[in-house]
Design a protein that fits this description.
alpha+beta, Rossmann fold, Alpha-Beta Plaits, six-stranded mixed β-sheet, 14 helices, 25% helix, globular, binds guanosine-5'-diphosphate, binds magnesium ion
């Protein structure tokens, strides 16, 4: 145990975490030339394309310092707020963290939120000032910022360029000399933390764990504490770029486990693995069942594809336990599923995976959060509303609660005004304003989560000209004056377009929704009235005017291939349309309320 170091890299997005990880692997010769690839650790296609790390992984390196070999376990953490619970579990598996700060960008919102997570878990922090090669780097100022933030000495901060390989040896030495060796009792009953799990279609679920006490042996009967299910440890091992099977993994170390489990939901991140016969009395603390934060309906474009969609969703759930879904039906869209996601990125990923891996074209309805409605008859039992059209008749409701978050925004002093206006428009209440330096300010707000779902990131980027970073964490439910705004097309309510909106904004948003839908709904042979309503009261109205002539008319007499192209283009455009009554609605229209500006 004395010669093991478990550490993670924490950073704001794009500050160089993946690049630094690659460089550490290089310097410790952990990668053969054949395996070498830019940003090795981000191995899902989607991750690579989006340049983000979705799933955390672990990798083992060996480094010799003063004649002694050390095992360094690098535990990678996801870089997006949707996956913050996984970040917290990865951090809990470590004794130390490299805090990477971009020498041009300085401290950003996720630098701080990740640092807090690391400090809560008593991690040794090694600050790394990255990208010192950049002409725009401000090493002196950013060093001051880091000193102010964590109260370290200037010389504890390691200047580096992950890109050019500067400072890498210093970082490796610091990991050995500054990160404490793991502690634990090798003779106690097995106690290991699950910090990640990955679905492998051939081998079943691979569980990544950190042993705190005891050891895990090949073929041992083990048990997961939270699910209380026992399995045989068919294979255990350590992780390099490939897996190295082992007979035993002892306290302090990190490894993988394969038990033949075929359903991702049986392995929960944050759970404790213990011995089935001689279980530990103290499970690793901090276990939580992750709860979806954002909900949306997913419907097949072709109603006949419902059963096929169900089969795809079931397969997706086998390898993504945080996806939940239940069947629902919509008067407008027919049969589909109400799905729960960790956040907006997670939603996009699922939608994209349905298309890429399963070739399913789906309609996704407006995302919403989950509300608690209290009826006047049973004021103690909340009715959980994860679809706005399920909100009971307002006359029977006492009050409605919605989820709130604590939002932290770091921006330049120049943009404090516009950022505040935006947050106030989004029903935020400022709770704190701290000048990190004379130029950089941290603002904290209590805000409804629903407002973040609705187009917040883009607006924040615009009002701050890109100089704002943002992070948030849930703080529970609060009572709000919410009303259901319905949309009627050609006189028929389209349930999939209903949204719960704060009373003060309902008229304005209803109006803007009608205007937006007018832009998005293609003209047809007849006028299509678009109305927004609260209950039976119409609050806004627009009309999509009938087409005047056949769009292909202008091609008659012209060349036939041009006409065919035009028809094909129309057909393609139709792919993501749904006919509701006699009105064709494109996919964008279902998301219209998200982009009202
Ligand atoms: P992550 O989001 O924290 O994983 O950041 P990445 O490692 O993906 O890096 C983000 C961008 O910064 C990439 O374009 C990298 O090539 C670049 N980058 C990372 N480290 C350095 C560095 O030391 N110097 C310079 N100039 N660019 C860097
Ligand atoms: Mg990365």
């Amino acid at each position: 145990m004395k010669h093991i170091r478990n550490f993670c890299i924490i950073a704001h997005i794009d500050h160089g975490k993946s690049t630094l990880a690659d460089r550490l692997l290089d310097s410790t010769n952990s990668v053969t030339a054949r395996e070498k690839q830019e940003q090795l650790l981000d191995n899902m296609d989607l991750e690579r394309e989006r340049g983000i790390t979705i799933k955390s992984h672990a990798i083992q390196m060996v480094y010799t310092y003063e004649g002694q070999e050390y095992v360094l376990n690098l535990i990678d953490t996801p870089g997006h707020v949707d996956f913050s619970y996984e970040v917290s579990r990865s951090i809990a598996a470590c004794e130390g963290a490299l805090l990477v700060v971009d020498a041009a960008q300085s401290i950003q919102a996720q630098t701080i939120s990740n640092l807090y997570l690391a400090l809560e878990n008593d991690l040794e922090i090694i600050p790394v000032l990255n990208k010192i090669d950049l002409p725009s780097a401000n090493p002196e100022e950013v060093t001051d910022d880091i000193v102010d933030l964590i109260g370290c000495d200037r010389d504890e901060i390691i200047p580096a360029s992950a890109k050019n390989g500067i400072g890498i040896e210093d970082i490796l030495k610091a990991i050995i000399t500054r990160v404490p060796a793991p502690k634990g009792d090798e003779n106690a009953p097995l106690r290991a933390l699950v910090f990640d799990s990955v679905y492998n279609p051939f081998r079943g679920v691979e569980t990544y764990f950190r042993v705190f006490d005891g050891s895990i042996k090949k073929n041992q009967q083990i048990k997961f504490v939270a699910t209380n299910k026992a399995y045989s440890a068919d294979e255990i091992g350590t992780l390099k770029l490939v897996q190295f099977p082992k007979q035993e993994i002892k306290a302090g170390d990190v490894g993988y486990l394969i038990t033949g489990i075929k359903d991702a939901r049986e392995v929960k991140v944050g759970d404790t693995i213990t011995d089935a016969e001689n279980p530990t009395q103290k499970a690793v603390s901090g276990f939580e069942d992750v709860k979806p934060m954002v909900f949306a309906g997913i419907y097949p474009v072709d109603t006949e594809d419902y059963e096929e969609l169900r089969a795809c969703m079931e397969k997706l759930q086998l390898n993504d336990a945080s996806l939940i879904f239940t069947p629902e039906s919509s008067a407008a869209l027919g049969f589909g599923f109400r799905c729960g996601f960790l956040g907006m990125l997670h939603l996009e990923i699922i939608q994209e995976r349905l298309e890429r891996e399963f070739d399913m074209t789906v309609i996704t309805t407006v995302p919403n959060v989950s509300y608690h409605a209290y009826s006047t008859k049973e004021p103690d039992e909340p009715i959980i509303v994860s679809n706005p059209s399920d909100l009971p008749d307002p006359s029977t409701i006492d009050h409605v609660e919605e989820p709130y978050i604590k939002a932290s925004i770091i921006t330049k002093a120049d943009f404090v005004g516009p950022v505040m206006s935006l947050c106030i428009e989004k029903r935020g209440e400022i709770t704190n304003q701290t000048y990190l330096t004379t130029e950089r300010v941290e603002l904290t707000f209590d805000m409804p989560l629903a407002e973040i779902v609705f187009d917040f990131y883009d607006r924040l980027k615009t009002v701050s000209k890109g100089y704002a970073s943002f992070d948030y964490s849930p703080i529970g439910l609060r009572t709000s004056k919410l009303v259901k705004v319905d949309v009627l097309l050609n006189g028929n309510t389209v349930d999939a377009l209903s949204a719960l909106i704060h009373f003060d904004n309902a008229y304005d948003i209803g109006k803007r929704m009608c205007i937006k839908l007018k832009e998005l709904i293609p003209r047809q042979q007849f006028d299509i009235p678009i109305q927004a309503a609260i209950g039976s009261k119409i609050i806004a109205r627009e009309t999509v005017k009938a087409l005047r002539k056949d769009v292909t008319a202008k091609c008659y007499g012209g060349d036939i291939s041009r006409k065919r192209k035009l028809l094909e283009k129309q057909k393609k455009g139709k792919k993501r349309m749904r006919a509701v009554g006699n009105v064709e609605i494109p996919q964008e229209a279902f998301m219209a309320v998200l982009k009202l500006n």
